[in-house]
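The pair is quoted verbatim underneath.

:::
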Amino acid sequence: QVQLVESGGGSVQTGGSLRLSCQASGDTLSRYCVGWFRQAPGKEREGVAAINNIRHTSYAEPMKGRFTISIDNTKNTLYLQMNSLKPEDTAMYYCAAGPTRGVWAGYVPSVDEYNYWGQGTQVTVSS
C-alpha cells in the first residue's frame, strides 16, 4: 500500500503563494487517483482538487483559477500550487490516494473515495 507524507505548509499573508508536496512511497502514485483535501477548525474535511492516472484534473469551485494540482511521476510526488491565498484558505491540508477513477471538470473529491491519507500540513493565511 502507498504511504503519503505532506510538506510545504506555512504562514503567508493574503495574496501569497505556497506549494504543497506529497511524497509517496510503497507504491506508484500513477496507479491511483490522488487528491488534496483540507480541514479548518470546527469544519468537515473538504475536497480541494484531484488528478487521476491519465492526468485529468478537477478543482472545487473556490479553488478554480488559484490552485493547480500536478504530479511528477519520476519523483512519485503530488503537488498543490496555491496562489492568491485568502484567510479562508487557512486549514490543515491532506493528500490522499484512492482507486483510480474518472475525473471530470465538475468532480469534487469526497473523503469516502480515498483509502490512504497523509498526516497533513498546516497552511495559515493572515489578512
Observations:
- The mean pLDDT is 96.
- The CA atoms of residues 14 and 86 lie 5 Å apart.
